[in-house]
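User:
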Amino acid sequence: MISLDALVLERLNELIHKAYNLMDTFEAPGPNMIGFEGWVDTELFAEWRAQSLVLLKGIFGNDHQYSISFENDTNRPGMPSSVKSGIGILKAVREDVDGGYLVNVRQLIAAEVFTDFLAMAVELSEAGYKDPAASLRPLRRTIRANRESACYS
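Assistant: Predicted structure:
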């Protein structure tokens, strides 16, 4: 079975590749257009931007810095600078996913709490209090479910 990280990395690579293909549609401004950076295909731009936002917001939510940065930095349809900014953000996300640097704080807190409960169960069991220790046993399922869930939720 393919891991969530592998799926996310694959999709990020696809979107980065799509952005480079989008840059291949670049049209330079004419000689009378001073200060204009040129443009890329707006239809392909809209497709790439929408798909990228769906991925980022699906992984991180609306309030994560990656989602916010991408939305703000790619808000000029058809502009090459918007595409370049988006590529940079998608590459940063790819690097963080690949390096395992994205951790959900809520899951870290939950893991800490569950670790405390397990420590209590061990202490109770070693002190001869088998029933209270056994009552903490269902936490195993919760811990296992938390451990198996994606760290991006």
